[in-house]
TrEMBL record:
The active site is at 173, 215 (nucleophile). Residues 1-27 form the signal peptide. One of its GO terms (biological process) is vacuolar protein processing. This is Vacuolar-processing enzyme. It holds the Pfam family Peptidase_C13. Belongs to the peptidase C13 family. It comes from Gossypium arboreum. The keyword Protease applies. It comes from the Eukaryota. One of its GO terms (cellular component) is vacuole.
Amino acid sequence: MAKQGYVFHNNPALLFLLLLLFEAANGGKATRLNHWESGIIRLPSEKDDQQLGTRWAVLVAGSSGYGNYRHQADVCHAYQLLRKGGLKEENIIVFMYDDIAMNELNPRPGIIINHPQGDDVYAGVPKDYTGEHVTAANLYAVLLGNRSALSGGSGKVVDSKPDDRIFLYYSDHGGPGVLGMPNLPFLYAMDFLDVLKKKHAAGSYREMVIYVEACESGSIFEGIMPEDLNIYVTTASNAQESSWGTYCPGMEPSPPPEFITCLGDLYSVAWMEDSETHNLKRETIEQQYKTVRERTSNFNSYTSGGSHVMEYGSRSIKAEKLYLYQGFDPASVNFPPDEFSHDVQMEAVNQRDADILFLWHMYKNSEDGSKKKEILKQISETMRHRTHLDGSIDLIGTVLYGPAKGSVILNTIREPSLPLVDDWQCLKSMRLIEESMCPRPFTTIKSESFSKLV
């Protein structure tokens, strides 16, 4: 018997002939048996999960506040998807402020949804790093497996070994060279890249895949992400544009009428809904990238709600199957590997305008006259503040470069292959000053111009 197994294992043609005979014996009718995932017959190149290293995942929602509901909904959804795929809770580390589920504005207390008809994605999500412990420093310590550098939280870290794979997913606001965190300081591109380089130098993983949902998220990697770290990255947007919220009130598809905020983000729901409707032992990372790129562009309607999904790093990883990072749900065994099943345009809102949309619907739904007046004042002050900040940046540009060149320089776009700036430390120093004076500045300021001042 062992000899026969050896013959089939080393003779794919004979194995294929056996499959044809098996099909003929069933009258040529299609069977429910999926030969490749059944466990009965495997290609010689396939491996059992036991032969793979451990799958690790780090999920980060970088915002707080009910108006940013969608970011924590994205992360909770990702957790449920990975758990269905077989990743162990001990190997999934979650960062989220955790102020949404029980928020007084949540019409479904204790429940978070990421789709208009979606199930609760909050139940069972571990509270690894919440509230004041959702920090860039803790994220770096978790990725490096450095428990001694942690401040609060569950103490879980990525204690990975050389054969392990890591999946990192981040969702929040962003700006040129920076990703948001609910507690200062923010995540800066070069700091993050230094962490990735240290992780690689330690030899403590085999490969890593990173998905980033944020405005200008391409600027974190553009022109600076090495191709030899065994890390593959996709971002929701290029270095110059916004990413988009979706499933928003007043749009199609619309959330249930009691919701006054967006339920998800376009790039994020694109990759998760793709994973949920495909066999991840057959779908490659590249196939998902192309599907998500198409859907996030809103089928090339960028101006009406869509962005350019970008890729960076070790592109050879794209040929691998998704299950190596996201796991495999046995219920998906008969799903197609790459058939595109979400081909309807979705209305979306610019991430920065999603905050205003939330306030507007809160104003419309309020029946308290004094409260409506207070909300309207908040909307007016927010818009006035944004105009003031944009004007201040334009004025600085004029002072530095003169009336004739100021506007031109601030609106000049670098070549796609070039990094955002040449002096990253200067950019970080300016950002730190900005942070101290203006909370979450990239949600209110003309951030794409800010980096031009460096």
